[in-house]
Amino acid sequence: MKIIALEHGHTVQTIDESLVCYPDSTLIRNNDDFYIPNFSKDIVAYCGIYLQVAKIGKCVEPRFTNRYFSEMGTAIKFFAKDVIERNKQFGTSTDIARCFDQSLAISNEKIQFAENLNIVATINNTPIPLNDRWKDYATIISKATQYYTVKIGDLIFIPCTEQPVSLQIGDVFDMKIQDNQLLTCTIK
């Protein structure tokens, strides 16, 4: 299984430059806690959704993408911001800051996909502003399948947070879709 992710700040025109493939070791399941790694002093998070692939596909046209998944869940992606900045300064890869183990919390529970869903994210009961970029899912999946063959069980993560959320030990994230509590993650 692989996780194809769109990096924060994408637009429909920059999807190609924003795609990343994470290993399955990045997953945090079962509402487990996120532990701040010792290699970073500045962890930030982006809330979003994920689509679970239900059919093998390659080079899928946008009008057919709804055939390749039926369920969605919520997710929180953690990044080591200081490591990204350091590596960009030296012109080296930033993968270690994005793809480290246990850096993507996903909800175990999924719901049927629909385009008119209300997604809510909070940190310590304070709402986090979200955007509707996930509604570009057809274009995102089509672009992703130009580079990667998607297989049953693969995940496609789409960030919905307007700005990165800085973290502190003790913070608690909650994510809901249509008032269904799908994900809780505590920062340790």
Task: Offer a quick outline of the entry.
With 188 residues, this protein is α+β, with helices and mostly antiparallel strands.
Q: Can you describe what's shown?
A:
The mean pLDDT is 93. Helix content is 15%, strand content 36%. It has 188 residues and is of the alpha+beta class. It has helices at residues 15-18, 81-90, 95-98, 137-147; strands spanning 2-6, 19-23, 27-28, 43-53, 69-80, 104-106, 111-112, 119-123, 126-127, 155-159, 165-166, 172-177, 180-186. The chain has 4 helices and 13 strands. The strands form 2 sheets. Strands 1, 2, 3, 4, 5, 6, 7, 10 and 11 form a 9-stranded mixed β-sheet that branches. It is globular, with a radius of gyration of 16 Å. β8 (119-123) and β9 (126-127) form a beta hairpin. It has a single domain (2-186), classed as Fumarylacetoacetate hydrolase, domain 2 (Alpha-Beta Complex), CATH 3.90.850.10.
The CATH topology is given as Fumarylacetoacetate hydrolase, domain 2
Residue runs with pLDDT of under 50 for 5 or more positions? none
User: How many extended strands?
Assistant: 13
Question: Helix content range of the residues, please?
Answer: 10-25%
Q: What is the CATH first-level class name?
A: Alpha Beta
User: Total number of helical segments?
Assistant: 4
Structural class: alpha+beta
What average pLDDT do the residues reach?
93
How does the overall form come out from the CA principal axes?
A: globular
